[in-house]
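Entry:
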Amino acid sequence: DLHSFPTRRSSDLFVSVEITDCDTLAVEGTVEATINARVIQIADKGAFKGTAEIDTAEIRGLFEGTLTVRQKLIIYPTGKVTGKVRYGKIVIEEGGQLSGEITADAQAGKS
């Protein structure tokens, strides 16, 4: 069931899907999706394109699209985030990149 699963990994795989209930999504390949999850972890060689509403985002690879992080966005030295980004808290390690329409918002993701 692609609409409800605890953890999935992608490696050397292209996936285009809507994920509506996921605890942790670990991206090691290329994923094009709309997702609402607790955690997204994008590996060094991973790429996520699309829309994500996340509690915690750990970016070591590439994120392109619309990203709403309700709690903490962490961009590691190899990470790059581009697009429309809202976050509660942020950590950008030296070398990490963030560009686009950026909004710091303690209420990110809350309606």
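Residues 84 and 101 are 5 Å apart (CA to CA).
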